[in-house]
Amino acid sequence: MRGISFKIVKVLSFALFANSLFLVLGGGTQVSHADSTNVVISGNITQGSSGNLLASGTFNRYNYCDYGNNSCSSGMASDSTIRSYLANNALSFNVGSVYINNCSIGGASGNFTAPVDARTGHYSLTVPAGCTGTIGFSVTPESNPTSSSLPTTIDYAASASGFTAPNSNTTWNIALPSIETVTVNAQDASNNPITNAGISINTSTTNWPSFSASLPGGGTLTGTQGPDTGLMSYGAQCTTGSHGCAFIVPANSTTAFTGSADIGHGLTNTALLSVPTSNSDVNSVLSMKNFAELTSSGTNSGTVEISTPPGTQISSESIAPLTSSTLPQSAINLIGQLTYLVDSITVGSTIDVTFALPSGTNANRVAKPLTNGGFLDLTQYSSFNSESNTVTVQYTDGGEGDADGIANGAISDPIVFLNYSGTLPSGSPSSNSVSSGGSGSWAPVIVPTPGPIPTPSPSPSPSTTPAPDVNTTPSPSASPTPSPTPIAPQTSAPTLSPSVSTTSGALNSKALGGGVSELGTKAQASAMKTSVNQLSSIAAKAPLISVKAGEPIAPVLKSLTKNESFKVALVINGKNVLVGTVKTNGSGVVILPVLSASKPGTYLVQLASASGKKYFVKLVVKAKK
């Protein structure tokens, strides 16, 4: 048992000696008013016709005073120990007080208070007869001793000024408003129970009705009731479990609840619920419609979770094996094809959708299947966290990634997560090739469907022969053989790219030194896109981006100042080499120029703005295996 005991030092603001009343003023001076008589205002505070203001237990914390010995004690103890304290009538367990403050008579004024006993609701207040001041009470039933199973308590407070104390002893009984119980359970978008949801009353939006109580001698006073937010309140710690969370609330009121579920992988999901209550107990369900769980159909078995912003709703979610598209031979389809719909979003807005993948998934590509068997690249709008196995993809309603292409408050998209270490070839689908009728504004990743056979040329001119991309297998040169190899169609399609300026960069490839090259804007569509959500202003703490030697990469940097230009420099052999100039888009996102290093090493990339801001990221180039 742990507890704190202390002696009561002089804390009362008045003293009674025979028929004389001594009022202690602010400076400590006692003013005698010998002619005043003293009266007692006493009674019981009840709730539901009972003066028992104790919780049912199990008890784990106490706070009592022994006024006979001028001592108090508080702390934690077992339920049986606390119940033995409660059985000792010499100990006072207080849950509030009744008072008259600034009660004036004969030129003197004082504050008078009496504790309310938790076991009986009884109080006894001694005041000078005829003094005038502010009368009131403040009480929190079921708050002392504290019950470990109690999810919340209610604070009651009421006062009225200009009250004149009676000239004789008076009984004042106070009936608190009746209470009901609201039990809250939590479910996800598929109506599956969530047993680890933390439920609490949202005190910023809950506004319970006021109440009134009659005054001794006539008149009324108005009171308020609200959720207790003090140290002894355990509302925020209530978890749903298999039976939900039970809350005490006033009858004929509406209560706002907040649910927060730790869904694993470092993700927390929140949802809101408003519950009206009349004169009976209520069972309610807090639906976390912005969270869904599914089972992987890919190479990595386990649970796949989707989390969207609060207030949005997930529906039509499903996972199936990927059958309508053909992956490159070395690409690993990690979970199958995931399909879902997110609605109740602001029309035309941009949201983040977070996917928690099975442990050890190690995804590094996000793509959208097309009906022609190809894929569109979502990687440049995705951020990866290998430690938590989460991927966050940014979507805009009616924009890139929204299947219907219409700003209508809903986003739908089929999606696959891949592990693929090679450079994905580019291609272009026809306008109706996006699954579910999507838009054609995504840069395609893979389009393996063969196109028309080109007419062979017996002697292609060197000036018209395109240079192969770095670390990609060049297409076979056309020759006068009768059966050339089919290739994918090469019609152009618009490429999704945050506003990138290369006014100082290269259109075509150029060597920067040390085996590092800038491949130019022509290589951007086929380069690997790796997102960095948070840069560092300190070079030593710069986040790392890994890439294999010879593999083109265009880092996607996020969380920068919106619409700001930066000079990009690369530290090569101890010297800053200017790469080019870039400009962030309206979301603070920018794609760096395409870089490729022919040998392993670590290269520091620096972004510098005209205003003096500097950010760093490190490019770690690993040897080919």
Fold and architecture overview:
The protein has 625 residues and is mostly beta strands. It has four domains: 1-176, no CATH class; 180-212 and 231-288, Immunoglobulin-like (Sandwich), CATH 2.60.40; 290-450 and 485-496, no CATH class; 498-625, Immunoglobulin-like. 1% of the residues lie in helices and 45% in strands. It contains one helix and 46 strands. The strands form ten sheets. Strands 1, 6, 7, 8, 9, 11, 12, 13, 18 and 19 form a ten-stranded antiparallel β-sheet that branches. Strands 26, 27, 28, 30, 31, 34 and 35 form a seven-stranded antiparallel β-sheet that branches. A five-stranded antiparallel β-sheet has the order 24-25-29-33-32, with no helix packed on it. The longest helix has 8 residues, at 79-86.
Question: If you average the pLDDT, what whole number results?
Answer: 77
Spatial gap, N to C terminus: 63 Å
Give me the Rg, rounded.
36 Å
Largest sheet: 10 strands, antiparallel
List keywords for this structure.
625 residues, mainly beta, Immunoglobulin-like, 10-stranded antiparallel beta sheet, 7-stranded antiparallel beta sheet, 1% helix, 45% strand
